[in-house]
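Batch queue: ligand-bound targets. Current item pairs a single chain with adenosine-5'-triphosphate. No template structures supplied; prediction is de novo from sequence plus SMILES. Inputs echoed for audit trail.
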Amino acid sequence: MARIGFAYNQKPEDEEARTGEDEPRADEEPPSSSRHLRSRIDASSPLASVIHPSPDASSGNHTDDEFAEWDSSETIGAVEHALSGLGEVVRLEANAEFPERLRAERPDIVFNMAEGLRGVNRESHVPAMCEFFGIPYSGSDPFTLSLCLDKARTKECLAYHGIPTAPFRVLHDASTHPGSLAFPVFVKPLHEGSSKGITERNYCRTASEMRDQVAFLLDRYRQPVLVEQFLTGAEFTCAVLGNGNETHVLPIVGMNFDVLPSGSLPVYGFEAKWLWDRPDEPLEIFECPARIDEALRDTIERVVLAAYHALGCRDWSRIDVRLDAAGVPNVVEVNPLPGILPNPADNSCFPKAARAAGVSYDELIQTCVRHAADRQGVALPSNAARARRRSVARAAASS
Ligand SMILES: Nc1ncnc2c1ncn2[C@@H]1O[C@H](COP(=O)(O)OP(=O)(O)OP(=O)(O)O)[C@@H](O)[C@H]1O
Ligand SMILES: [Mg+2]
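Prediction returned. Tokens below.
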């Protein structure tokens, strides 16, 4: 029976920090990791202001997003269930013990959904360790994962390949003028995802608004800020599956910003994702398949597939697209580790697109692993063979 390693990072839900690794030094304080110091540093310490950013909700900046990238026990359980359809699942939480456990367990293949502990290359750590130990794994390689977690480098690569993406600048200092970019602009942390640091305040109509928000983001997220031309058109997100000529786009997810509270911006940021959309009161923001004509659908698919291949994505990725004023689909960002919340009420776009294509959650995860296994010559049981084995086992147990 195949042994499927399962690499993930779990949000601290019921219990406190579960990572167990050594604490980072304050000067390395990376995105997504400041909690290690939080509990240890006295409020009177000079470090306290660095690692205890004051909640700033009154200004429109919501900062309670530290673990937004990591997965809940519900998602981890659902993925484990899906993987168990392919073999014996070996849980490998991507914490300090991960390297040793990976080496000791040596699964036949690792399903990777670990967002990583710290640093701008955090998403590449698990695949890099798999590569180091020669263990096959699913999804993109360390280089592509790091590349896509740098939104500016990603855009440089897209631009080189002639793939439309909004004009941009990277700011390291709030007083820098964004050159020839015309207002309004949209600003965002360079190395985040899951809408971390993305609020309505990031839409800036003037140089002074931009200065204030860039200063806030630089201080809060401790990383450069991307300033982009604001794309005024419709937004879509595209789930892509497969490799080579067989790569395909699942039904496109369109966003209907009309359902946002009146007066809000047409942006799918922290408010829309985590505050206004709740399982008990889901925001009906998505339509899948998006109601667009065939020509636009074809153009979006062409752009998205070109981006997927240009960036070296493998097995799966989710790509965000927005139309510019001329109606041209621009790539906003690429997510080689797409969110996969299992509960339809959670409005997770990749599973939503899969459902629209008639693909169940379990089939989606298994398809991703199968693409990875095919690429690397790993033998997995066919669905039929596995179902047969299960019914034989059931018959044996009942006799
Ligand atoms: N240049 C832009 N013009 C208009 N809107 C933008 C632009 N860049 C980002 N946005 C809005 O902000 C949202 C979040 O941006 P982005 O996708 O880069 O952040 P993210 O946190 O990485 O997203 P995800 O939650 O998909 O990981 C987009 O879905 C879009 O609504
Ligand atoms: Mg996005």
